[in-house]
Amino acid sequence: MDFKALLAATKTIAVVGMSNRPERPSFVVASVMRQGGYRIIPVNPQYAGTTILGEPCVASLADITEAVDIVDCFRRSEDMVGVATDAAAMSPLPKVLWMQLGVANDDAANIARDAGIDVVQNKCLETTYLALR
Fold it and tell me: In angstroms, rounded to a whole number, what is the distance separating the alpha carbons of residues 31 and 62?
């Protein structure tokens, strides 16, 4: 996958498992990506209806009504089948289902790929972005 081209074409990133706590990896990664000019959509049922990084948090991917380029996932590997299924139901489809460092699930990857979504597993979006700037 051409990460440089992907990031150049990306405008919006849905962050699944987003925390409102600044010390959490999801908050740090989303902050860096937001500072890089990307729109962040926080996704976490625990914080739905609140604002994180100036953006309204939604409960699930099904609650997003706009185009998303990357679904960035901070969930356990065993939870990824549900996330992939939700991503595959989005319209329009996201370009990439991105599983963060330490997160990998081949069944979820197959669900996403079968729907036409590219997949990245076990890789940090922030690290990739910073390396390509």
Answer: 23
Collapsing DSSP to helix, strand or coil, 56 comes out as strand
- Bridge partners of 119, per DSSP, are 97
As given in the structure block, the two tokens for residue 21 are 């706590």
At 108-127, the pLDDT tens digits run 999 999 999 999 999 999 99
Global pTM value: 0.97
In the chain, the amino acid numbered 112 is: A
Tokens of 81: 């089948």
Determine phi and psi for 87, rounding to 5 degrees.
Answer: -65, -40
Beta pairing, strands 70-73 & 55-56? unpaired
Q: How are the residues of the chain apportioned to helix, strand and coil, as percentages rounded to the nearest 5?
A: 40, 20, 40
Cα 23 to Cα 29: distance, rounded to the nearest angstrom: 10
